[in-house]
Amino acid sequence: MKSWQITDFGAGAGISLNEIPEPPLGSGFVRIRVARTSVNHIDRLTIGGRFGWVTLPRTPGSEYVGTVEEVSPDAVDVFPGDRVAVFPKMFCGICRYCASGQESTCLGGWEPSRAPMDLSTNMLPVSMNGGWSETAVIPARNAVRLPENLSFDDAFGIPLSGMTAWHMIRRARTVPGEKAIVMGSGGAIGLSALQILKIHGVSVLAVSSTLAHMAELKRLGADAVSLPAQEELDRELLEFAGKTGVDIAIDPLGQSTFQRSFMSLSPGGRYVTCGSLTGASAELSILRLYSRQIELIGSTTGSKRDLADALEAASSGRLTMPVDSSYGFENVPAAVQRHSERGRFGKIRISVSE
Ligand SMILES: [Zn+2]
């Protein structure tokens, strides 16, 4: 089979398309013929050597959907021909977190000696080969069946981006009628969060640094839009939520927008983040935190239930994933390049097979 592989983290860092034998199917595993995959930050971080202990060669591809081709004899509830999304994080299925549906908190496969704070270590493709390949093997429990009427083209951005956003909104404990600000609204997580908040009856002020995104954000349901510049954002926020501020701040960006998110919150407000792309540290006023009874909520990937709920919302047309650009399997390096550029709107799609 053909597979994109990272062969070196050093000066020759990058990926190459190689013809390799199909790996044997381990106990409890399934083989998937990959249909669509995408590019996410964790793929680029892995290629760039952020997780330097990863054994090479390694196939990136944190997010993919496809058809089950082969199952090991002890793989239950998954059958050849099933169309599935791949849950992008390894989990043991038996610990107290997994037993209560918190697969994203599972420590199975986590390597604390290597990344003491970072549960990304059990995500694809850090934990095992991902989906930039004609076929891929994963534990059967990571395969989640797609709703019948959901096409691969509409499903491919749900397993990581859609699920991560769904989990953030669940963690935010939204109440219909509340108001939210969404930072990084042009990104796949921001776009998903905007739509999922609307599904839950929450009004949204969508913030994007690209003026050209505004009309599309409104079409996807944003009640108000703003550029992130302080003066404009203050004005839009005042008009949107009055002097008290918003109930929820969804912020996948990290350091660059933390203060603006935090300061936009009303008493009792909840700040939810799932990323630190712009930096991992922030200063905050402890006085403001306790006196306004604000909650800071961390969120990473999601649960199988979040994935199933997001797929269901996609199949009913309530959660759509705008596609920034599409690439064939031979053009993965161009897709990776596009992901590194500013001003993207939505997902980068890679078609591997029909
Ligand atoms: Zn577990």
Describe the structure.
The protein is α/β, with parallel strands linked by helices and 354 residues long. It folds into two domains: 2-88 and 123-156 and 321-351, Medium-chain alcohol dehydrogenases, catalytic domain (Quinone Oxidoreductase, Chain A, domain 1, Alpha-Beta Complex); 162-298, Medium-chain alcohol dehydrogenases, catalytic domain (Quinone Oxidoreductase, Chain A, domain 1), CATH 3.90.180. It is built from eleven helices and 15 strands. Strands 3, 4, 5, 6, 7, 14 and 15 form a seven-stranded mixed sheet that branches. It binds zinc ion (ZN). Zinc ion binds at residues 91-92, 95, 97-98, 106, 108.
Total strands: 15
Count of individual domains: 2
Largest sheet: 7 strands, mixed
- What portion of residues is helical? 25-40%
Return the CATH architecture of the largest domain. Alpha-Beta Complex
CATH level-1 class of the largest domain? Alpha Beta
Run of helices and strands: EEEHEEHEEHHEHEHEHEHEHEHEHE
Find the CATH topology of the largest domain: Quinone Oxidoreductase, Chain A, domain 1
* Mean model confidence by pLDDT: 94
